[in-house]
Amino acid sequence: MGMSSALNPRHHVVIIGSGFGGLAAAKALKRADVDVTLISRTSHHLFQPLLYQVATGILSSGEVAPLTRLILRNQQNVRVLLGDVEAIDLNGRTVTSNLSGAHTALSFDSLIVAAGAQQSYFGSDEFAVHAPGMKTIDDALELRGRILHAFEDAEIAAAGGERDRHLTFVVVGAGPTGVEVAGQIVELAERTLSGTFRSITPGDCRVVLVDAAAAVLPSMGAKLGAQAQRRLQKMGVEVQLNAVVTDVDQWGIAVRGGDGTQRRIQSACKIWAAGVQASPLGAMIADQSDGTEVDRSGRVLVQPDLTVRGHPYVFVVGDLMALPGVPGVAQGAIQGAVYAANLVKRSLRGRDDPADRRAFGYTDKGSMATISRFSAVAQVGRLQFGGFAGWLAWLVLHLWFLVGFKNRVTTMVAWLVSFVGSGRHQLTNTSQMVHARSAMNRAGAQTQPGPAEPGLQLAVGR
Known about the structure:
- This protein is an alpha/beta fold.
- It has helices spanning 20-28, 51-55, 61-64, 68-71, 137-156, 161-166, 176-192, 222-235, 281-287, 330-348, 387-401, 405-420, 431-445, and strands at residues 11-16, 34-40, 78-82, 84-89, 94-99, 102-107, 110-113, 117-119, 168-172, 206-210, 238-240, 244-249, 252-256, 262-266, 269-272, 276-278, 300-301, 307-308, 311-316, 321-322, 367-372, 375-380, 383-386.
């Protein structure tokens, strides 16, 4: 297998995480004279930018989450371990992981931590019960069930307030994920589900995009943000900015406007796409390194060479890393991982001096967000464009970065079905899941407090 033996140990690189950063680091070490162990809490590599398409029935989970072992099976110097990392000892150079109660301790010569981030509710974690985020495959499948379940409940609800509540979808967060989800819910309702119900018209649903910020897609600038907002509003999406969510429950959300007024949005299906929080491993690493801190999102404030102070061969990359000028996007993780892997390879050749390393330099290859079928916004360097040209650029880029030829082909077929036609082949496999969600939700409803009386308005917020 190319792994070291007890009699002939090679330099051992441990990589934590199988996301963009972890996978890029492993691939960059393919021909290096090292042994690599990649530890991940999931068995797959997740193409997170397309999770919203799993949630809205365009793609299957397998198309955005191929098995990590299959991706790396031909790389003989890599071993993949499934497990949840519980301890990192920087001075002892060990990593301990846990799988089903069995602990595995690994020693390392170099460590690349690409553990990523999770959904943040800004201190109100109780919101997650009624407004799930979208960071994992399970999240996306849960949301797919909730979205479809809302239409099913509306079909049998009495006309009026209760039916309107089931046909109101609230998306919290006007970043790329929130914009993409809001647009896809509208298209799902108006195109795919058109004519499939008898008591309701799915296209009459209300989609509300809520954000505490003053603009849509603030990271992409005022011009593209305004273009995206206009397109969403033309599709019928209500965009509510400067609106802070203050409460989320089974029946809706409460928001506080920029003028301090409170209002409530009655909604059965809420989706949280606002904010991320770094893995707890960041704080664990910082605590063992004098002078290393984490920011308020839990990201490690790394040195210019992506290491932690006092440990020149412990690298932190991706969403767990905080470095000025490097955004928390896939390209930042990939470039940082390749940079770290190259330093490891230089050290094996005796050409790496930690005191004289060139600082990591991030190359901005642009950012994109799709709004609807044939419409997206894109920023590449100083060039900003949208509409159909932006959508084509988005299409090519995402196909390029999908892992594996099979995934590209099946994804293209799924996109043809959805974008050219009106179908979503992944919705055909959802009936049992919707039934299961219905049973769970009704069981849960029995333990929830009843709704406010008709004359009362709860504080609204985001």
